[in-house]
Specification:
The protein is an alpha+beta fold. The chain is built from 5 helices and 7 strands. The protein has a 7-stranded mixed β-sheet, sandwiched between helices.
Length: about 160
């Protein structure tokens, strides 16, 4: 089940983020830095922060920017699935739900940034129709590969 993040979810979100050691390491952060940065992002205005639950526990999170102020596309700023569930197909299922419910209704063009050393994530996004667009630097100074997906709407 996907639901919007609320302040009541803060402690559980913090615990979830502390368990994502591989993702923190890929970001060259301690788990504490990773937790603090992403909790702050979830509580910032202007994005849609979502929690995916299975049997009442968080199994994934996502953060969306519906309309980027420069390029006008929807940006998927963060999509993290619990590490112990990698390789189970859950990420695919959750991404499809996310795209259907929270992305397609708003935009026909999606972008996201993938860390250059996160080959597993890059392959995942390419399987989901994203293609390399360019290299970029995030507002936090991190180098990423920007991937883009354009939908073709049937009339």
């Amino acid at each position: 089940m996907i639901q919007p993040y609320t302040a009541e979810d803060r402690q559980e979100l913090q615990r979830f983020l502390m368990d994502q050691r591989t993702f923190a390491r890929l970001n060259e952060q301690t788990v504490e830095m990773f937790r603090d940065e992403n909790v702050a992002d979830f509580e910032e205005e202007g994005t849609i922060s979502l929690i995916f639950r299975e049997e009442e526990r968080i199994v994934a999170i996502a953060d969306l920017l519906k309309k980027h102020p420069i390029d006008g596309s929807l940006w998927l700023g963060l999509f993290v699935v619990e590490e112990s569930l990698h390789g189970t197909g859950l990420a695919q299922t959750l991404y499809e739900q996310l795209e259907d419910q929270y992305m397609r209704p708003y935009q026909t063009e999606f972008r996201l940034g993938v860390l250059p050393n996160n080959l597993r994530a890059r392959r995942f996004w390419e399987r989901n129709g994203y293609v390399y667009e360019k290299d970029s630097i995030t507002n936090k100074g991190t180098r990423v590969h920007v991937l883009k997906k354009r939908l073709i709407r049937s009339e």
